Amino acid sequence: TVDHDNKLKVYEINRKLIEKFEEKRGTSNCLKLLETAGLEVEVKGEAEKRTSEYYSKRPCGYIVYDAARVLEEYLEEVGVI
Asked: How far, CA to CA in Å, does 16 sit from each of 3, 8, 11, 13?
């Protein structure tokens, strides 16, 4: 069985990290993140081909970097690193 107290603690940490990320980026919703980066995102039945041009216009690497920084800052704050 899952330890209820630990589960609540993990949820609390997760919520804190999401809030910090949203402070930095304005949202944690992928579609909205892409739109705020200036991409016109259209939800359609078929995914675009993953080409170098496709990736060159997407800000995903920068967004992941920001998420990693939020985690790093948290780990420094709690003394893990």
From this structure: 20, 12, 9, 5
